[in-house]
Amino acid sequence: MNLVENALISIRPGYADAIFTGSKTVELRRRIPPIQNGTMLWIYVTKPVGAVLGVAEVKEIVAGTPAEVWARCNGNTGIDRSEFDRYFDDSESAFGLVLAN
Q1: Which of 14, 17, 39, 43 would be 35's cystine partner, CB 3.0–4.6 Å?
Q2: How is 52-64 classified by DSSP, letter by letter?
């Protein structure tokens, strides 16, 4: 697998705003592109914004079952447990991208 230095991810406006203000420092994903610590994530904010509005560095990738990722990241995800469980419903794996800068 070739790891990349830059990647583009799409994020809904409310979650993107929380990242930009610093209240959300972990982006949750069911799967991730071939990234590593230090990868720069270019943040495309979905419609109605429809634009790349920021960039963040991947400080750490937390991988595991949804329960394991929740235990390590819950205070920084910008969502509550019920929303987390809905997102990862029927998923055996989860990823938390810890963001910096």
Answers
A1: 39
A2: EEEEEEEEEEEEE
Own/partner pairs, 16-21, CB within 8 angstroms, 24+ separation: 16/43, 16/45, 16/49, 16/53, 16/54, 18/78, 19/43, 19/54, 19/56, 19/78, 19/99, 20/53, 20/54
Q: List the alpha helices (DSSP H) in the chain.
A: 13-21, 66-73, 81-87
Contact 23, 87 (CB under 8 A): no
List strands edge to edge, sheet with 6-11.
6-11, 40-45, 51-64, 94-100, 26-29
Q: How confident is the model at residue 89 (pLDDT cuts 50, 70, 90)?
A: very high
pTM reported for the whole predicted model: 0.94
pLDDT tens per residue, range 53-70: 999 999 999 999 999 999
Give the single-character DSSP code of 37: T
